[in-house]
Amino acid sequence: MVLRLDGIAVAASIKADLKSRVAKLAERGVHPGLGTLLVGDDPASSRYVAGKHRDCEEVGIRSLRRNLPADADADRIKAEVLAFNEDPACTGFIVQLPLPDGVDANAIIDCIDPAKDADGMHPYNLGELVLHPKGELRTPMPCTPRGVIELLRSYDIDLAGRRVCVLGRGITIGRTVGLMLTRNDVNATVTLCHTGTADMQRHLREAEVIIAATGRAGIVTADDVAPDAVLVDVGVSRVKDPVSGKWRIVGDVDPAARAKAFAYTPNPGGVGPMTRAMLLKNVVEIAERSNT
User: Fold this and answer.
1) Strands of the sheet with 3-4, listed across from one edge
2) What is the CATH number of the domain that holds 102?
3) Do 263 and 155 touch, CB atoms closer than 8 A?
4) Is 110 a catalytic residue?
5) Which of 127, 168, 175, 248 is deepest in the core (most CB within 10 A)?
6) Of 15, 52, 116, 281, catalytic
7) Are residues 177 and 260 in the same domain?
C-alpha cells in the first residue's frame, strides 16, 4: 500500500509540542509574538495570513498584525518593517508576498532584522545556511524546505545518500531546499531541474525522491516516476472543474503517479500545513535562543 504523508496530522503534533514550549517560556516571563505585514486585500494572501494567526492562537503565540492599503508605497511599507524590527513584543515577523506592482520585494525583505526573520528568507540567514553545512544553525531556516524534511523524517524516510530531484527554481523552495538537503544531517544528493534542463524526464525517472515545485498542474506524470519513489508535491495551481465549473487546488504531481510511489504528499494537506508549522517553530526557537 502506498504511504500517504499526512501534513495536517504531523503539523498538529508539532504545534502540540510548541504549545508546551511556549508555556514554559511564559513561566519565565517570555511571550513569543508573530507579526504579519499585509499590503492590500488579495483574498488568497488575506486567508493565508488569517490562518497563521489562528495557528498562533492555537499554540499560545501573540499575534501582531499590520495592514496597509494596496496603494502603499515602498517607503510606507519599509516604515512598518522597521517598526516591527523595534517592537519588543515582536519575536519574529513576515511580510506577506506578493507586494503591489512597483514595489521591490527584495528591497523590503532586506530591511527585516535577520534575527526576526520568521520566514528564514533574509539574505543573511540564507548566507548562514550556505556557510554552515555542519552543526546546529542558530538562525531561522526557510519554512517550506524545513517542513518537507520534517514531514519525511516523521515517517522515518531517511534521505541520506538518496537521489533527490527538485523540480523548479523558485526561492520559496526550489533554490533553497538543496541547501538543506545537502547539510550533513540530511546528506542527500540533489539534482535541480528547471525550464533550461535537457531531458528532464530522465532526471525524474532516476530520482528516488521528487520534490515538485513549479506551480504547473500535473507536470509530473506516472511515466516520469520510478517505482517506489517518494513524491513531494509543493506546487499549487487553481484549475476549473470541467463538470461543476468550480475552482479547486491541485498540485504538480498527477494523481495517477501516486500508484507507482512508495509514498506521496497530498496536495492540499501535505506540505502546506508543515510550512505554517515551521513558521511557528522559527518564532518559538528565536524566543528560546534569545532567552538562554
Assistant:
1) 3-4, 263-264, 230-233, 209-212, 163-167, 189-193
2) 3.40.50.10860
3) yes
4) no
5) 168
6) 52
7) yes
Number of folded domains in the chain? 2
Q: 277: closest CA among 113, 118, 116?
A: 118
Q: Phi, psi at residue 187, to the nearest 5°? A: 70, 35
Domain span at residue 264?
143-272
Query: Residue 141 in contact with residue 180, Cβ under 8 Å?
Result: yes
**123 in a structural domain:** no
Strands 92-95 and 62-68: unpaired
pLDDT band at 238; cut points 50, 70, 90: confident
Peptide bond into 98 cis (omega under 30): yes
Report the DSSP pairing between strands 237-240 and 247-250: antiparallel
Q: In this predicted structure, what is the pLDDT of residue 195?
A: 94
Closest Cα partner for 193 from 179, 213, 208?
213
For the stretch 41-77, pLDDT in tens is 888 899 999 999 999 999 999 999 999 999 999 999 9
Catalytic residue among 15, 55, 96, 254: 96
56 domain residue, yes or no: yes
List the CATH number of the domain containing 176.
3.40.50.720
Any domain includes 58: yes
Catalytic residue among 55, 117, 119, 254: 119
Q: 163 near 169, Cβ under 8 Å?
A: no
User: Is 260 marked active-site?
Assistant: no
Tell me, yes or no, if 241 is annotated catalytic.
no
The C-alpha cell at 148 is 518537507
